[in-house]
Amino acid sequence: TEVGEQVYRLDPRVVFIYAAYNDDGRPLRDGPRRQMPIQPGEAKPTAFTCDASTGRLRLYPAPDAVYTLYLRVARKPLQPLVNDDDVPEINEEYHLALCDWVVYRALRNNDIEAVQMTPADTFRASWELSVRDAKRDVVRMNAGYSARVLTNWTKKVR
Prior knowledge:
By secondary structure, the protein is of the alpha+beta class. The protein has helices at 95-109, 117-143, 147-150; strands at 7-9, 14-21, 29-30, 47-51, 56-60, 70-75. It has three helices and six strands; from the N terminus they run E-E-E-E-E-E-H-H-H. Strand 4 and strand 5 form a beta hairpin.
């Protein structure tokens, strides 16, 4: 951040901000602009809003010093996939899941008469299972394995 600067331009590849954290690891409050704290002067930011249409991040209150904020965002790819040898930045284990989503969208977007509903739904279900597994992997990566997850009703460790 910069002293006294309340509004920051986001990278155009940022689609959505899920969370913002200060340098202590505490999350900043997110919400509509009308619910933001109104403080005269400057202080350490405690809240933010994001205007995706203009690509700007607004901090409340304006920073009184230089702070480092960490953003968790949804973004577009860093490099466009143009050539046949271009590789997505997503791990290889998720490439087939991306293909499931692409096929689902292709079948749904071009199916005016709803003839391809069943195949499209099959690919969407496969996509959703892959996303569920990926989310579980992220939770395990961040929180570690749970004894409740490792055992089943027979008390056998998987």
